[in-house]
Each structure stands twice: as structure tokens, then as C-alpha cells.
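Memo to structure team: turn this sequence into C-alpha cells by end of day. - J.P.
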Amino acid sequence: MTGPNASNGFLDQYFSLLENQTTIRQEFIGGLTTFMTMAYIVVVNPQILSQTGMPAEGVVFATCMSAAVATLVMGLYANYPIALAPGMSLNAYFTYSVCLGMHIPWQTALGVIFFSGVLFILVTVTKVREQIVNGIPDCLKHSTAAGIGMFIAFVGLRNAKLVVANPATFVGLGNFSDREVQVACFGILLTLVLMVRKVNGSILIGIAGTMLVAVLRGVAHAPSSWVSLPHPSGTLLQLDLRGAMHLGLLEIIFAFLFVDLFDNIGTLMGVCAQAGFVIDGKIPRVGRVLMADGVGTLVGSLTGTSTVTSYIESAAGVAAGARTGLSSVFVAGLFLLAMFFSPLAAAIPGFATAPALVLVGGLMMQSVSHIDWPDFSEAFPAFVTVLAMPLTFSIATGLSFGVITYTLVKVAAGKFRDVSVVIWILTVVFILRDVYLAIG
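Reply from structure team:
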């Protein structure tokens, strides 16, 4: 067979499109939606890392290349619609704690990232990370999905300036006379109408419509140029492996490993639970899923960026219809194109993608329906997880509070058998983590 049908047949067979009740068009829309909601990383990551002295042009290249490679591995090897890129919390730790706080040269810090990437792959190959993911109880898996929904909705509201800092009450309502707030509200309403009317690609259309109104209202600008050539030489292969092998840096290596491990696990559980990928409490092919960020982190260290991790914005693509790794392949291709079209990505303001994050957060809250609420030993740890993620502004911290609470409540209820060996170990590790972070 030749022609388009042969191509469609190959893609259907490789990605199991029919089995997952999806199409090439649906996967493309889902992938494009995911990319649109996380395209900010192409701009924000260089802004943060350049404060260490790293050339911003090189970081743009490294950001796009590491995201493309990691997401391609996710799509082709794991067949999941989950995109990866340099993590926001991890790039902040790299810049402000390691390079600026500890006065470690960025080249040495990239060497640390390389070794942490090697450790990611080792603990994945040995199935340690897989056992951790599958060992999380169902109530925490579902509450993690809901907690991430609350988290990304909060991020969206903050980006839309609908939620702002308040010295008296910590947070408060934004100023509706602000044109950015008005445009964001229009975007939320537009996207909501499209979603309830079940319009295909509603989230993507909502982003585009919000951007158009933003330009017309004068709060956003069309890109001054469309194409720019990548400049990788400033950061490519500039890592200092010898300096990173210094014993004093072992603590930093494990810090990167630890933060990425549980941030990644929380994101994976949330997105997979939303998409219905969790089967009998487990994520199929989770070892392959976890391999993607290890490979991405290695590529990132070689090209010039901080740790790569799974992105919660993948939930927007899932909500738009993405169900297989084909959408991840599309996202990877878009990241490669972004190296040349970075001015276009830079033109999308945060308040234009905020409506997508708010509404996807609402969709992810449906996971709470799977929690056994009448059983308080199941319900309270789930409640703590959902509450802690947005309030601590950390997926990893929310998950840690949930695990610790789960163990304490189960022991108090005399249900010792419900606490697996994995949960006991995680409880001890999370307590040590929280104490260490408090001291640090």
C-alpha cells in the first residue's frame, strides 16, 4: 500500500490510534495545545539562566533541543501524550541557590546536571522509580491529579492577574480595570463556551482568540520578526565534569535528583489519571515514561540548560484530545521549530494561556470522584494533597504531605496492612526532605 493511507496505517499501528479512540488530527490539536501552553519556557528559561552568566541565545537552543529530544523519547518509546522541558522550579534552584547562592560557576553546575541525569537513568533502569510510582495508593493518585488541577488553575489565575498578592490576606482579587485582566476574563469565557459546546480544539482556539483580542486591545504585540537563527555555541558542550566530581557537590546532585523525582512522579500521576491511563492503580510502561526525563536531562546538560522534567501543561493537550505519543512527536517537532521562531513564542503573554490553565484545572478536579470519601483514612490524606499543592506552590511538597498524612492516619486507624513498604520508605524520606528544606 502506498500514499496517505499507508502512512495513516503505520501511525495507527505504531501509536495504537484506533485503540485509543483518537485520530492524527486530534493528536495534532492536542500536541499544539500542549506546546502553546508551555511555549513560555522558550522565553522564561533563558531569562532565568542568563542571570548566571550563561549566554541567553545558547540557552534558547538548549531549551528547545532538550525539550524536543525528551518529548520525542516520551512519544516514540513510551507512547504517552506528555511533554517535557527544563523545569521551572529546577532552573530557579540552579540559578539562585547553586550558581548565585553557592557561587558555583554555571559550567560546573551543568556538570552536576549531567551526573544527576545519569542517576535518573540508573534508578529508572533498576526499576526503583517504577516501584515508587506504582506503590502510591489510589487515593493519592487521584488526589494528585486534582491537586495539580488546583495548582495549574492557581497559576492561571495568577498569570491572568485575577489573583494577586495581598499583605493582609496573602492573596486577593485583581483589578478589573486592568486591560490584561479584562482580556484574560474574555479568554476564560470564550474557552468555556467552546468547551461546553464541545467544539474541537476549543482550548487552542481560546488561546488564539485571547491573543488576538490582546493585540487589538494593545496589551500584547505581534512579533517584530518571525524567524531567528539559533546560536548554540555559547553553551554547547561547556559543562565542567571534573569540577562537578568534587565531593562537596554530591549534595547538590542528589537535590536535583530528589526534586525532579517527586515533581515528575506527581505530574505523571496527575496527567495519567486525568487521561484514564492508570490501570489497576498502575501506569503501564511507566519505566519507559521515566526514561524520557533522564535522557532529556543529559541532553540539556550537554547543550546548556538545567534539569528536564514532565510538564503539567500536558494536561491541556489531554483535555484537547491527545491520547497517544503521536501528540508528543508533534510537540517535539514544534520545539525544534521554536528554535527558529522564538520571537513568535515570545509574543504570547502569560495571560493569553491563563484561560487554558484555569479550565484544564477544572477538568482535572473530576478525579476526586474516584476517592472513597466515606472512609476518612482515605479521604483526609487526599484532602491534604489537594490542599497543599496550590498553597505550597509545589507538586512535590503536596505529594509529600499526602504520603506522610496517609501513613499517620492509617496507623492511627489500625490499618497497618494498608501501608506498603514503599509508602513507609517514602514517608521517612519525605519527613527528612521537609526537615532538610526547613533547615536549609
